[in-house]
Amino acid sequence: MAEDAISPPAVFDWLDHFMALSHDGGMREIGKLRRLSPHDGWLVGIKAVQDDADVHGHMWERHPAGDEMLCVLEGRVVLTLADEEGAETDVLLDTRRSAVVPRNVWHRLHVACPGKILFVTPGHGSEHRRVAAPDA
């Protein structure tokens, strides 16, 4: 084998397997752990979703470090966005539909039909808060 020969890349099952994208353009697989290094800028993955527990539907989240892209590969999810006053807007995403959640916008997901989603999200600085219980 020649000194400058290229080693074949690792091959892996893409489902529920995550990748870290570094600020310098590098990429490394992190499997299911979702543990990022300080130099990692983005988390990319494809996740099977059966119900709201798979998408942390009980939590609002926002990403001050950047926008988040959500793509529905199969199934159907409802993306709920909340403005500064707490008014909510629902966006239905079904198979082959995607949306970009702007930086700093509170959002959460609801699984309407099981499937698979691809996400590209900032790797650090995300904020979370519990969904308030409905008034009785």
UniProtKB/TrEMBL annotation:
Cupin type-2 domain span: 60-116
UniProt cross-references to SUPFAM superfamilies, sorted A to Z: RmlC-like cupins
Domain of life, source organism: Bacteria
A Pfam short name: Cupin_2
Transmembrane segments: none
Protein name as catalogued: Cupin domain-containing protein
Organism: Achromobacter seleniivolatilans
